Amino acid sequence: MSKAALIDLDGTLSDSGLAIIKSINYALENLGYAKLQGDTSWVVGPSLWPTFIKLGIKESELEQAISLYRKCYTEGAMYEGFFYPGILEQLNTLKTQGYLLALVTSKPISYAGKITKFFGASDYLDFEFGSELDGTRSDKTELINYALKEINLAPKNTVMVGDRSYDMIGAKNNKVLGLGVLYGYGSKKELLNSGASRLIEKPEDFANDIMQALPLRND
User: Fold this and answer.
1) Dist. CA 40–CA 190, nearest whole Å
2) Are residues 101 and 158 in the same domain?
3) Segment holding 130, helix H or strand E
4) CB of 147 within 8 A of CB of 170?
5) 136: phi then psi, degrees, rounded to nearest 5
6) Are the C-beta atoms of residues 103 and 7 closer than 8 Å to each other?
7) SS3 letters for 25-73?
8) CB of 48 closer than 8 Å to CB of 71
9) CATH number of the domain within which 168 lies
10) What is residue 149's predicted lDDT score, i.e. its pLDDT?
11) Cα dihedral 121, 123, 126, 131 sign
């Protein structure tokens, strides 16, 4: 049975915070709302719908906010982030060792696929899963469940790697081991409180920590 790592995108493989914040601010300004202020790290990771609701966008303006965000994002902002230094080499190590690798992101897969291809990550990913443009499968619990079924993975042979509580909660709800990365946008407290079983401190620890948490051999 294959051993697999399900891997988040934003804050885990890539530092896309500036692109996301820029696109949210574009939507807010065009709808007549104030730009993001103070700590903006919380907007990186969750689905756009609850994010805009939390920012006070009226339900009647929600679809317009999403449309404005996507206009800014797809017209260039999505390529303004960067993959963490050395993370592609970490993916290569896992592939070479024999792990199955799958992207599992709340971002629409139509965007995520372009990003992983642009930065070269798609070369190491066996599968790529994300949400649909209408928000379907943007919830991590639902998305992880979908990935497990599509690949026919046993939860005991799988880890979910991400930087936010949503990743860890989704893993726990699917009886998958959750590994939290500390170099992303979630805090140590957030990750531990949401069920992370192990913390990855630096991108250069990525492959080794996954291999320790999920050894290829069971003996």
Assistant:
1) 15
2) yes
3) strand 127-131
4) no
5) -60, 135
6) yes
7) HHHHHHCCCCCCCCCCHHHCCCCHHHHHHHCCCCHHHHHHHHHHHHHHH
8) no
9) 3.40.50.1000
10) 97
11) positive
Max CA separation in the chain (angstroms)? 60
Number of helical H runs and strand E runs in the chain: 9, 8
Number of domains in the chain: 2
Which domain range does residue 199 map to?
Answer: 4-15+82-213
Encode pLDDT of 17-74 as tens digits: 889 999 999 999 999 999 999 989 889 877 888 999 999 999 999 999 999 999 999 9
Q: What is the mean pLDDT of residues 146-175?
A: 97
What is the reported pLDDT for 218? Answer: 67
Tell me: pLDDT of 201 over 60: yes
Q: Which residues are catalytic?
A: 8
- Asked whether residue 64 is assigned to any structural domain, the reply reads yes
Q: In what order do the strands lie in the sheet with 177-181?
A: 127-131, 100-108, 4-7, 158-162, 177-181, 198-200
| Nearest CA among 156, 60, 150 for reference residue 109 | 150
End-of-domain residue from the set 41, 63, 79: 79
172 closest CA partner among 186, 191, 187, 151: 191
Report helix, strand or coil for 84.
Answer: coil
Asked if residue 147 lies in contact with residue 173, where contact means CB atoms within 8 angstroms, the answer is: no
* Percent over 90 (pLDDT), the chain: 88
